[in-house]
């Protein structure tokens, strides 16, 4: 749970802070909240200094959502999505030669994804050597969460050395076709000859959650992958994945038409500081 603050106005009597300093301070204090409120780019803030009135606290809670609504036996839908890191367009057909396909809906900012990120990479590296195909998709709206946009996806994939393609679902059609509702969400499909990919696992990575003090093991997903690759049936008893809800485009906006706002505009609306940071 993050605590941010909102400004009530400007005052000449309040302490002055430079905009670059405030950005850096807020980013350290609220790494998940800052980019979702302003699309900050280098040079997007004014050189002048601002003054701030005393602030009031606003409590923000992440919405926990469970994966649901997709039945085992579901056929993998076709998709055609771009990988921001390389510019390559990937399709479902690109994975036809593999005995199994893991489709993950993730994003950059979600604390549930961040909690598992390194272990998702580790698990993927291990099973991709055994023949598993893996693909990750981000469907979050960049209108509400610009830090999940393609530019930052490419940086994320490079920073964490994703061994799988990390695809951008700008239209959000892939999320709707798969029935995805949260991040992270895992869909494991098996391939049987020429038959289409068939869903055999739609559940959690493991029992670990942020701040739960339960170690990350990947046990649930690993057991399902082991069964698929060894030709064994996957248990139908599956715990749903839990994470942040997918962020749908508000009002049906097309993301390609949305441009970053200047820091001046955003700053006049929300200033993300704790009162003690101004002391």
From TrEMBL:
Belongs to the peroxiredoxin family. Prx5 subfamily. It is an enzyme of class 1 (oxidoreductase). This is glutaredoxin-dependent peroxiredoxin. InterPro entries: PRX-like1, Redoxin, Thioredoxin-like_sf, Thioredoxin_domain. It comes from the Eukaryota. Its EC number is 1.11.1.25. SUPFAM superfamilies: Thioredoxin-like (SSF52833). It catalyses: [glutaredoxin]-dithiol + a hydroperoxide = [glutaredoxin]-disulfide + an alcohol + H2O. Residues 70-230 form the Thioredoxin domain.
């Amino acid at each position: 749970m993050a605590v941010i603050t909102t400004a009530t106005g400007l005052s000449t009597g309040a302490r002055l802070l430079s905009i670059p300093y405030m950005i850096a301070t807020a980013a350290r204090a609220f790494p998940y909240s800052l980019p979702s409120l302003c699309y900050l780019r280098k040079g997007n803030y004014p050189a002048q200094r601002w003054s701030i009135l005393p602030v009031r606290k606003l409590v923000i809670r992440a919405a926990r959502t469970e994966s649901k609504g997709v039945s085992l036996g579901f056929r993998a839908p076709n998709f055609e999505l771009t990988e921001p890191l390389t510019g390559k367009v990937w399709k479902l057909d690109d994975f036809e030669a593999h005995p199994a396909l893991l489709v993950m809906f993730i994003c950059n900012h979600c604390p549930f994804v961040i909690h598992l990120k390194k272990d998702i990479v580790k698990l993927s590296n291990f099973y991709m050597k055994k023949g598993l195909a893996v693909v990750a998709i981000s469907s979050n709206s960049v209108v509400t969460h610009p830090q999940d946009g393609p530019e930052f996806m490419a940086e994320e994939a490079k920073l964490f050395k994703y061994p799988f393609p990390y695809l951008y679902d700008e239209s959000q059609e892939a999320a709707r076709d798969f029935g995805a509702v949260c991040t992270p969400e895992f869909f494991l499909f098996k391939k049987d000859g020429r038959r289409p990919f068939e869903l055999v696992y739609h559940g959690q990575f493991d029992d670990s959650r942020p701040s739960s003090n339960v170690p990350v093991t990947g046990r649930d997903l690993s057991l399902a992958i082991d069964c698929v690759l060894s030709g064994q049936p996957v248990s139908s008893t599956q715990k749903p994945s839990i994470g942040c809800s997918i962020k749908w485009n508000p009002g049906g906006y097309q993301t390609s038409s949305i441009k970053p706002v200047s820091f001046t505009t955003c700053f006049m609306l929300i200033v993300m500081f704790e009162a003690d940071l101004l002391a």
